[in-house]
Amino acid sequence: MTALEERPTQSAAVFSPTFDAQTDPLDVIRWALQTHPDLTMPSAFNLNGVVLLDLAGRAGYTGEVVFVDTGYHFPETLTTRDNLATRYPQMTFVTLNAGATPEDGQTDASLYSTDPDACCAVRKVAPLQAYLRQRAPSALLNARSRDQASTRADIPFVEEGTRRKINPLAFWTREQLEAYAAAHALPVNPLYADGFLSVGCWPCTRAVKPGEDARAGRWAGKGKTECGLWAGDGKL
Ligand code: SF4
């Protein structure tokens, strides 16, 4: 049986591919496109996301790239999004919550400091959940990888749940991602070079210190490690 053949799991209607840690992410994406033609890709345009976008383009992905504008993104992140939209015209870049600002009344403008879970729930998770309920894709293409954080150390290529998540970069290291981005001159968020190895909203992101996980700068000191899109009760 090859890596791309499928075998039945719990039910006749559910199939899981026989990938292993050495499987090329491109093969995972090609399988995903065959299996889920309505595949959708949420992205925050971090290093992982930029690499995944490029690989997806090479594999023939022409679907949507969905970004949630919380109103608190760094200008560099919005510029990165625009650069990517120009580079990959075959994909449709969708910005949800567009026009959100800290003063728009959507939340208390400083809710991020008093209740970051509630802030993420309203500004990030809710807009994407609503969009996905409307579009109802059968699977999501996601850029998380195991070495981003100890909390992501078990991410599989194919993750079942409310929606199937396909994680082609699950086994790639940061060094592999950086090497790929450099080899293909990808427009990585310039904050990355300043130590922002994972870039979220400006009130909740700091540069990473030597030896820290790539995501250690997210919600540092707030007892929070995920925005709620990929972990927790309301995860996608
Ligand atoms: S990362 Fe911070 S500012 Fe952004 S939505 Fe979450 S709590 Fe709010």
From TrEMBL:
Its main location: cytoplasm. The keyword Oxidoreductase applies. Keywords: Cytoplasm, Iron, Iron-sulfur, Metal-binding, Oxidoreductase. It catalyses: [thioredoxin]-disulfide + sulfite + AMP + 2 H(+) = adenosine 5'-phosphosulfate + [thioredoxin]-dithiol. GO terms for molecular function: 4 iron, 4 sulfur cluster binding; adenylyl-sulfate reductase (thioredoxin) activity; metal ion binding; phosphoadenylyl-sulfate reductase (thioredoxin) activity. One of its GO terms (cellular component) is cytoplasm. The keyword Cytoplasm applies. The active site is at C227 (nucleophile). It is found in: Cytoplasm. Its EC number is 1.8.4.10. Binds 1 [4Fe-4S] cluster per subunit. [4Fe-4S] cluster binds at C119, C120, C201, C204. GO terms for biological process: hydrogen sulfide biosynthetic process; sulfate assimilation, phosphoadenylyl sulfate reduction by phosphoadenylyl-sulfate reductase (thioredoxin). Belongs to the PAPS reductase family. CysH subfamily. PANTHER family: PHOSPHOADENOSINE PHOSPHOSULFATE REDUCTASE. This is Adenosine 5'-phosphosulfate reductase. It comes from Deinococcus puniceus. The gene is cysH.
